[in-house]
Design goal:
8-stranded mixed β-sheet; 3 helices; 49 strands
C-alpha cells in the first residue's frame, strides 16, 4: 500500500494528528461577527519594521490573539495568535525585518499568551541552526537581545506555541515573517512573498474536518496581490515558505531562474553557471528561494502552488462562498500577475498547424472517467486506456492551433503547462487574457481554439484547469513533447512516464497510474541494445506527492544521467549521474539519459519508493 507518510510530506494529508476538538476554543469567525480582537492586516513586505538609531535597528515585537480574515474583512475569519510591533496592528506575515549586512539588530519580544510557552526562531546570527526549543518565553515574559545581520540572504523568523506545537495544536505558521539581509547600499527592487498556513481540526458539521487559511502575503486567492510589471522588467522575487508543508511553485507562461535556496539560518547562492531555469520548483517546508524572471509578453498570469489541495476552492472557510457573485474555482496559495501591454517575444516558423482534441466522459464506467482524444469516436476498452490523453508531439517554433471540443456533460478548460505562449491561450478559465481575448470556460457542446507557441524543445504537460481535482484524477491530462526543428520523435529511444492518481483519495496501487497502467500491473516491456542512449521523460501531475525514478539490475542501482528539467536543459554542473532521481514535485518534469552498458534484464521504477512504484522490465541485448 502507498506510504501515507510520503503523501503527508507533500501536503496531501493536511491535518492528521488526533486533536480533541472539545478542547479547542471556538476558532471560526462568521461573516460580520465582531470578535473584539485586533484585526490582522495583510503585510505586503514593502515597509521594514523597527526603528533605526545610530545605524542599529531596534525591533519591539509581541504576539497577540487576533481576528484573521484571509479573504476580505467582511468574510469569514479565524482566531489566531499573530506577531505585531508594539503599538501597531498584528500582521500576517509577521513584520518584515530587513537590514544591510553587518547591521546590529536589537530585538525585544513579549509573550502575551496566558498559558503557553512560546519559542522564537530565526532572530539570530546566520550560519547556525536554532536549537529545537529556539528562544523560550514563559507566559507574560519579555526578553531583549542583540545580534548582527552577518550574512547576505533570504531568511525568515517564526514562533511556535508550546513544545512541538505542530503535534499538539495543528499548524500555526501564520506566526512567521521575512528576514532579508541586503548588501551595503543595495538598491532594493524586489518582491518578498511569504507563504503562511493556519490549520486546525474543527468539530462542526462542515464537510471538511478542519478549518484552515492558506495565504501568500496574508491573503488567499482571489484576494491576494495582483502584480503589474511592464514587459521587459527584470524581476526579483524572494519566496519564503514559512509553512511546514511542501509547495511546488509554478509560474504560468514564463521561466524563472533560481538564484538561491535556503532556510531560516542559511542561504545558498548559486554561481551564475549553476543557476537552474524552471517553470515549477519543489519548495520543501520551511525553505526560501530567490528567483529572477522577465515577463516578455503582456497578459494575465498566475504564480501558485501546484498541489491541488492547496489551491482548491474547497479549502475556503465555511460560508466564504456566500459572498461570491460567481463561482471561484481556485483559492489559497495563488497570486496574479498582470503584465502591461508591450511587445511579444514569441517566434513562429512556417504554416500554423491545426488539430482537434476532444474532451470526453464515460458515465457508464465503474469509476466515472474522462479522457482527451484525437478521435471523436474513441471508446476505451481492455487494450486502449482512457488515460493519459494522447501524447502530443510538436516542433519548436511551429505554432499550433488546438481546438478543444467539449463532449462532456460538464464544463472544462485546458492549461498548457510549461509552454511560453500568449496569455489568452494559457487556459485558466475566465482569467488568462491578453490582446482583448480570454481563455473561457468551455461549456458542454462548445469548443475553443488555443494557439500554442513552442519556444523551446522539451517535456511539457496539458491538463484541465477547472474542477481540477476531479477532472485531472478522472483522466483529463496528457504529455506534450516539443522536438527541435531538425529532429524527429522516435518512440524507440524516447520514453515518457506520466504519473497520476485515479482517485482524489488513493488507497493503494490500483489508485495510482503511470501511462494509464495502475501500479499493481507491469508496464510494457522495452527491448534495447547495449550502448544505446534512451531518453526517459518523467512527469508528475498527481494532486500531491513527490516521486522518483531509478533503474536496477538485480539489486544494483544503475546510474542515469540528469539532463533537463521543465523543458530547460540543466546547467553542466547539474548534469550528473544519479542512482535515484531527486524528488520531483507536482507539475515538474525531468529528463534523464539511460545508457545500458551490459546485457541483461533491468527494472525501471517510477513512483514513491521501490514498493510503491510502477515497474517496467527492460531486456537489453548486445
Amino acid at each position: 500500500m502507498i506510504n501515507r507518510g510520503i503523501l503527508f510530506s507533500a501536503g496531501l494529508l493536511l491535518i492528521t494528528m488526533s486533536v480533541n476538538a472539545q478542547k479547542i476554543p471556538e476558532l471560526y469567525l462568521a461573516s460580520g461577527f465582531e470578535a473584539g480582537l485586533p484585526l490582522v492586516e495583510a503585510n505586503n513586505n514593502k515597509n521594514p519594521a523597527g526603528t533605526i538609531s545610530d545605524g542599529e535597528i531596534f525591533l519591539d515585537l509581541e504576539i497577540v490573539e487576533s481576528d484573521f480574515r484571509p479573504e476580505t474583512n467582511d468574510r469569514p475569519g479565524v482566531k489566531v495568535w499573530a506577531f505585531r510591533e508594539k503599538g501597531k496592528a498584528p500582521t500576517v506575515p509577521a513584520p518584515l525585518l530587513r537590514s544591510e549586512v553587518g547591521t546590529i539588530i536589537n530585538v525585544s519580544f513579549t509573550n502575551n499568551h496566558p498559558d503557553s510557552i512560546v519559542h522564537v526562531y530565526g532572530l539570530n546570527d546566520k550560519g547556525e541552526e536554532d536549537s529545537e526549543e529556539g528562544m523560550s518565553f514563559e507566559p507574560g515574559e519579555s526578553k531583549s537581545w542583540s545580534f548582527i545581520a552577518n550574512t547576505v540572504g533570504t531568511y525568515f523568523y517564526y514562533a511556535d506555541i508550546g513544545i512541538q506545537a505542530r503535534g499538539r495544536m495543528g499548524e500555526i505558521e501564520q506566526l512567521a515573517g521575512a528576514f532579508i539581509v541586503d548588501e551595503v547600499d543595495a538598491i532594493i527592487n524586489d518582491e518578498v512573498i511569504v507563504i503562511n498556513i493556519f490549520s486546525q481540526s474543527y468539530d462542526s458539521t462542515y464537510s471538511v474536518p478542519f478549518i484552515e487559511a492558506l495565504t501568500m502575503n496574508g491573503k488567499s486567492w482571489p484576494f491576494s496581490e495582483l502584480f503589474k510589471p511592464e514587459v521587459g522588467d527584470s524581476l526579483t522575487w524572494r519566496i519564503i515558505n514559512a509553512s511546514r508543508r511542501n509547495h511546488p511553485m509554478h509560474l504560468h507562461g514564463f521561466y524563472y531562474d533560481i538564484e538561491s535556496l535556503g532556510n531560516s539560518f542559511e542561504d545558498n547562492l548559486y554561481a551564475p553557471e549553476d543557476v537552474r531555469t524552471v517553470v515549477t520548483e519543489f519548495m520543501r517546508g520551511r525553505t526560501t528561494m530567490k528567483m529572477t524572471w522577465v515577463p516578455s509578453r503582456e497578459g494575465k498570469w498566475l504564480f501558485h502552488c501546484h498541489l491541488s489541495f492547496h489551491v482548491s476552492s474547497e479549502i475556503r472557510l465555511p460560508g466564504a462562498e456566500e459572498h461570491d457573485d460567481h463561482h471561484v474555482h481556485m483559492a489559497g496559495l495563488v497570486v496574479g500577475i498582470d503584465v502591461q501591454p508591450g511587445p511579444s517575444d514569441l517566434i513562429s516558423h512556417g504554416e500554423i498547424r491545426k488539430m482537434k482534441l476532444y474532451a470526453k466522459d464515460y458515465p457508464e464506467s465503474d469509476d466515472y472517467r474522462y479522457s482527451f482524444s484525437l478521435d471523436e469516436s474513441f471508446q476505451p476498452d481492455s487494450t486502449h486506456h482512457s488515460t493519459p490523453g494522447p501524447l502530443l508531439v510538436m516542433k519548436q517554433y511551429e505554432t499550433t492551433d488546438v481546438e478543444v471540443v467539449n463532449l462532456m456533460s460538464q464544463p472544462t478548460g485546458v492549461h498548457w503547462h510549461g509552454l511560453e505562449l500568449d496569455s489568452w491561450a494559457d487556459g485558466v478559465p475566465n482569467f488568462s487574457a491578453s490582446e482583448g481575448k480570454m481563455s473561457p470556460i468551455i461549456e458542454p457542446g462548445e469548443s475553443f481554439v488555443y494557439r500554442l507557441s513552442h519556444m523551446r524543445a522539451g517535456t511539457f504537460i496539458y491538463h484541465s484547469h477547472l474542477n481540477d481535482i476531479e477532472q485531472i484524477t478522472g483522466g483529463l491530462y496528457g504529455s506534450l513533447i516539443v522536438m527541435p526543428e531538425d529532429e524527429e520523435y522516435d518512440p524507440y529511444d524516447d520514453h515518457t512516464y506520466i504519473l497520476q492518481w485515479r482517485s482524489p483519495n488513493p488507497n493503494g496501487p490500483t489508485d495510482v497510474e503511470v501511462n494509464g497502467i495502475t501500479m499493481d500491473q507491469q508496464q510494457n516491456v522495452v527491448n534495447a541494445k547495449v550502448g544505446e542512449e534512451h531518453r526517459l521523460r518523467m512527469i508528475n501531475i498527481a494532486p500531491a506527492g513527490g516521486i522518483r525514478m531509478f533503474v536496477k539490475q538485480d539489486t544494483t542501482f544503475v546510474p542515469i544521467l540528469a539532463w533537463a528539467k521543465d523543458g530547460a536543459d540543466l546547467p553542466e554542473s547539474q548534469r550528473v549521474y544519479v542512482d535515484r532521481s531527486m524528488r520531483i514535485g507536482v507539475g515538474e518534469t525531468i529528463d534523464f539519459i539511460f545508457k545500458p552498458e551490459d546485457p541483461g534484464t533491468y527494472q525501471l521504477f517510477v513512483g514513491y519508493n521501490e514498493n510503491d512504484s510502477a515497474k517496467q522490465t527492460w531486456i537489453v541485448k548486445d
